[in-house]
Amino acid sequence: MYIENNPLNKYISYWLISIFLILSLMIVVGGLTRLTDSGLSITEWQLFSGIVPPLNASQWEHYFDLYKKIPEYKLQNFSMTLEEFKVIFWWEFIHRFLGRLIGIFFLTPLIFFSFKLGFRKTIRFQLIFGLICLQGFIGWYMVSSGLTDNVDVSHYRLALHLVLAFIILTLVFWNYLNYKDIRLPRKKINNTLISFFILFLFIQIVIGAFVSGMDAGKIYNSWPLMGSSYFPDDSSLLNLLSFSIFNDPSIVQFIHRNLAYLILLFYLIIFFKIYRGRNSEYFKIISIIGFLLILQIVLGVITLLSGAEILVASMHQISSIFLICSTIFLLYLNIRTS
């Protein structure tokens, strides 16, 4: 349902699409931060003072000395130079800077709109801001998991951090659509199928974070087989029933691959139902989703074959943003159709 006309609506829509773009950029930078192993380069959470980067040699040495105290440096990067440290520092710094920018850029207009429209009419934005604040806490919760006993952050906390980012992105995009005059289809399609499709996409994001967090994309760099067989030969089928299933990189990669096939199957079911039902108003969006899904799978395969090469892996994550949003748009059209 399109929100009734109001002079403020135009500015709210501009605000939301700007937040959406910055959130998308932050997800991309976050992925690159993980791919470059930069996430642990800043070992303290400085909410206000951390907005200013090191400005002289002594400050750079201070940050580098802090980094030298954690396991990642002691066990893995002990030969790193200050110049090499600066590279990973900047990735994490930019990621945190974007997080602060989102918080400020969301809160300031929110205060204004809340005064103009009232708290009740902006409560959904208050809730999104609450999630943004929670995301900042979870980001530090994730980083802290790699500062004491491990050389990497917990892949469970990484997955939580990533999926919450996509939830916030989805909510911002959904609210943005509410402020656009969108032509709705004349009849609905099966909403349950679309909902399951989106659910599987979000589960795939979680599994993808597990793959990234455990560097599972750097093993079994072959497709369609994992080495010489369909199932990884360093694992057992019984491991699929184990409580530690998501701690096994080979099994996690196996799940990630096969969940992609299941998602493709669900898409084909939705696709054929739309075309068999001659719901021509959905043809464009379902075709876009199909293109993005195929692109996502192809990029996933290339990411595997390349041993998780940074550029390809980043493109794989970027395409997931487009895929999620186009599917959310399909759900929006279907739900809003009377």
Looking at this protein, list some descriptive labels.
338 residues; mainly alpha; 2 domains; 10 helices; flat
Describe this structure in words.
68% of the residues lie in helices and 0% in strands. It contains 10 helices and no strands. The mean pLDDT is 91. It is flat, with a radius of gyration of 22 Å. The protein has helices at residues 7-35, 57-67, 71-76, 82-117, 123-144, 155-178, 191-213, 249-276, 283-305, 310-336. The chain folds into 2 domains: 1-181, no CATH class; 185-338. The chain is mostly helical. Helix 1 (7-35) runs antiparallel to helix 10 (310-336).
Question: What order do the helices and strands come in, and which of them pair?
Answer:
Layout: H1 7-35, H2 57-67, H3 71-76, H4 82-117, H5 123-144, H6 155-178, H7 191-213, H8 249-276, H9 283-305, H10 310-336
Helix pairs in contact: 1-4, 1-6, 1-10, 4-5, 5-6, 6-7, 6-10, 7-8, 7-10, 8-9, 9-10
Summarize the structure.
By secondary structure, the chain is mainly alpha-helical. The chain contains ten helices and no strands.
- Coarse shape: flat
Overall average residue pLDDT: 91
| Continuous helix count | 10
> Termini distance?
9 Å
Instruction: List how many beta strands DSSP finds.
Output: 0
Beta-strand percent range: under 5%
- Structural class label: mainly alpha
Which stretches are low in confidence, meaning pLDDT under 50 for 5 or more residues running?
none
Describe the largest sheet: none
Number of domains: 2
How much is the radius of gyration in Å? Answer: 22 Å
Percent of residues in helices comes to: 55-70%
The helix/strand order is HHHHHHHHHH
